[in-house]
Amino acid sequence: MTTSYIIDAVRTPRGRGKIGKGALTGLHPQELLAQALNALQRRGGWDAREVGDVIAGCVSQVNEQGANIARNAVLAAGWPQEVSAVSLNRFCGSGLQAVNFGAMGVASGAMDFVVSGGVESMSHLSLGADGGGQDGGNVRLRERVYQVPQGISADLIATLESITREDVDALALRSQRNAARAIEENRFAKSLFAVKDPGTGAVLLERDEYPRPDTSAQGLAALKPAFVAMGDTVVGPNGETLDGIALAAYPQAKRIQHIHTAGNSSGIVDGAAVVSLASERYVKEKGLKPRARIRAMATLGTEPLLMLTAPAPVSEKALRLAGMKARDIDLWEINEAFAGVVLQTTRALGIDPERVNVNGGSIALGHPLGATGAMLLGTALDELERTGKQTALITMCIGGGQGIATILERV
User: Fold this and answer.
1) Which of 95, 98, 326, 354 could pair with 55 as two cysteines, CB 3.0-4.6 Å apart?
2) One of 58, 92, 258, 260 is an active-site residue; which one?
3) The pairing of beta strand 53-57 with beta strand 4-11
4) 115-129 burial string, b = 16+ CB within 10 Å, else e?
5) What is the structure's pLDDT at 2?
6) Is 367 among the catalytic positions?
7) Could you tell me the pTM of the whole model?
8) Pairing of the two strands 391-398 and 331-334
9) How many distinct helices (H) and strands (E) make up the chain?
């Protein structure tokens, strides 16, 4: 096993994921990913024929995002037909998993040059669009473990961890302020490219569309909890509600405190991101200047009802593989699926909050499910270079009780 190097990373701006309100909603998701592929190729100046494989994460792989969206995006980009491509789904961790699989490929010697990333058009295909729900409707599986929706899990975690509404709203406000500062100071400019109408060439979107820099503590406090009615939904044969099922597994909670709102949960957006990775041999042969190397990668399963607590233990696993401690990491990107997840992870690992999501996160910027992991990696890399720091850890919670983590080190 040799080293895997990150050569470059690009992403689209995140567009609001609502038809008629988002600038990217008229664009086919294949075209969204194709533009990311071409932006990466233009910046690098390499021949697309040298790409050993394209690996793309995408969660809702139905309709426009079905039929192996990665392969169709390669064809839509006009790349040579010899370039193969595969789509994968590890729920919210899909984009980062695509990068990790690409890194494994080049580190093992199986390939020399890979493009990895992800795409999600949430305006076209919203959460749950594939019809699978949490468990594919497997009644026998539900008898073993009932996987409640993620919003119920997030509120249950907050209840068990004594995380308050004030805590999650404060984190949400920090995310918005950090994102606003990052946009004002052009901290995202290095990775961003303008998305264009493939027919006319007109620019559709140049900057992230979702952030709300005028967000206030008062405005966040006025929002109603998002998952109260869901928690009261009867789903069991004997009248069990979703909250009741969760409490049966965690009776110490006594009553779920529903504190997550639209303001302190991740935003629904459209977007795509890709990363180029190369082997040590290829870097030397081509005289490339890598931006970073991947120091360690890890995945981990955790209890599937609680579901969202894996970022802390999977980060510890990656740190062990790298021979590092949490204090050795300069920057943390902990995906803001829900504010409570970030707070639980930060507390569990004893991380300085000032090192976490310094340019905002998915609460302010949005969470285009299959693309987010690759976006977070690019954001971390840009920030390491901007500040002259050396190491970053990207970690994400994943539906069904999984986590993923990747450690970068600047070259």
Assistant:
1) 98
2) 92
3) unpaired
4) bbbbbbbbbbbeeeb
5) 79
6) yes
7) 0.97
8) parallel
9) 14, 12
